[in-house]
Specification:
Elements lengths: L9 E7 L8 H13 L6 E3 L14 H4 L6 H13 L2 E9 L13 E7 L5 E6 L9 H5 L8 E3 L5 E4 L8 H9 L4 E5 L7 H15 L2 E5 L4 E2 L2 E2 L5 E3 L5 E4 L5 E7 L3 H8 L9
Parallel strand pairs: 1-2, 2-3, 7-8, 8-9
Antiparallel strand pairs: 1-14, 3-4, 4-5, 6-7, 9-12, 10-11, 12-13
Helix pairs in contact: 1-3
The chain binds the ligand NC(=O)CCC(=O)C(=O)O.
The ligand NC(=O)CCC(=O)C(=O)O binds next to loops.
Keywords: Hydrolase
Organism: Luteipulveratus flavus
Protein name: Carbon-nitrogen family hydrolase
C-alpha cells in the first residue's frame, strides 16, 4: 500500500460520548446519530469503542449483541450519508448470524467504518482482548486481521481498539503495511488515564504516525471513563485533547504532516530487523 507523497489536510471530529446505565441502546443510538449528523463539513468523524452496548457492561453484551447489518450499524450508515462524512462508528458487540469463531463464543468487539455513501466500508475485530480471565477473553473471540482504510485525503489509516494500544508490535506491523495514521476508539477508564495519554504519544512518536484516538466519558457499570480523546502529531505534539466530559473535538490536520516528519527525521529507516 503506498500513501501519497504529500497528503492533503483533513478535518476530523471526535465524538467523546458520555453515557451511564440509564439509556437503552435505541435511545443512545438516536442521540449519537444526531451528533454525527451535526458534523457535516468534516472529512472524518470518529466514535468510541462499544458505545451502544457499554464498554464495561460485560453482563449485557450477549443480549445486546448485533450483526454488522443490525439496527445500530444501519442507523450509523444513514447518519454518515446524511452528514456526507467517512464515519468510524466506534465498535459494537458483534454477533454474526453464521459464525462462532475458533473458541465457539460467537461474539467479537468489532469496529465499523461507514463511507459517505452509507456503505459498510470496513470492519476490524479487536485483536487484544481486555479483562484477563473475565470480560472480553471470557465472552469474545479475538480478531486476527490487520485492517487499513483509505481516508478522504488519500492517506492510509490502520484500525485498532483500546487495549490494543498496549501492544506496540501491532502498530509496527501496521506501518509496515503503509499506515501513516492510527485510528483508535476506546473505553479507557479514568483509573489508568495517564497510561492512555502516554501510550498515545509513544505510538505517535515511535511510529512517526498521526494518532486519532476517541475515548468514552461518563460512568457506566460502576467504571468511570477517562475521556481525554486526542489527536497527536508524529512529533508527539498534542494537536488537540478533550477534557473528561462529553465533548466533540473538531481538529483541522495540516497537509503533509506525517510525510514531513518522516522526511526531516528519518528514524524509521534506521530499523534493524
Ligand atoms: N476496553 C479496554 O480495552 C480497556 C483497556 C484498559 O482499561 C487498559 O488497557 O488499561
Amino acid at each position: 500500500m503506498t500513501s501519497p507523497t504529500t497528503s492533503a489536510g483533513l478535518r476530523v471530529a471526535l465524538i467523546q460520548l458520555a453515557y451511564d446505565d440509564s439509556e437503552t441502546v435505541p435511545e443512545r443510538t438516536a442521540r449519537v446519530v444526531d451528533l454525527v449528523r451535526a458534523q457535516r463539513g468534516h472529512d472524518l468523524v470518529v466514535l468510541p469503542e462499544l458505545w451502544p452496548m457499554g464498554g464495561f457492561d460485560y453482563r449485557a453484551w450477549p443480549d445486546k449483541a448485533e450483526a454488522t447489518d443490525g439496527p445500530v450499524v444501519k442507523a450509523l450508515a444513514e447518519a454518515a450519508q446524511d452528514a456526507g462524512v467517512l464515519l468510524h462508528g466506534g465498535s459494537i458487540v458483534e454477533r454474526p448470524a453464521d459464525e462462532l469463531g475458533p473458541e465457539g463464543k460467537g461474539l467479537w468487539n468489532t469496529s465499523v467504518v461507514l463511507s459517505a455513501d452509507g456503505a459498510l466500508a470496513s470492519t476490524y475485530r479487536k485483536i487484544h482482548r481486555f479483562g484477563f480471565a473475565g470480560g472480553e477473553p471470557l465472552l469474545m473471540e479475538a480478531g486476527a486481521d490487520l485492517v487499513l482504510i483509505e481516508l478522504p485525503n488519500g492517506s492510509h489509516a490502520a484500525l485498532s481498539t483500546c487495549y490494543d494500544l498496549r501492544f506496540p508490535e501491532l502498530y509496527r506491523a501496521q506501518i509496515d503495511q503503509g499506515a501513516t495514521v492510527f485510528l483508535i476508539p476506546a473505553a479507557w477508564p479514568m483509573a489508568r488515564i495517564e497510561h492512555w495519554r502516554l501510550l498515545l504519544r509513544a505510538r505517535a512518536i515511535e511510529d512517526q504516525a498521526l494518532v486519532i484516538a476517541c475515548n468514552t466519558a461518563g460512568t457506566h457499570a460502576g467504571t468511570e471513563m477517562g475521556g481525554r480523546s486526542a489527536v497527536i502529531a508524529p512529533s508527539g505534539e498534542v494537536l488537540a485533547e478533550a477534557g473528561t466530559g462529553e465533548e466533540v473535538l473538531s481538529v483541522q490536520i495540516p497537509a503533509g504532516l506525517v510525510e514531513s516528519a518522516r522526511e526531516s527525521f528519518p528514524v524509521l529507516s534506521d530499523r534493524r530487523l
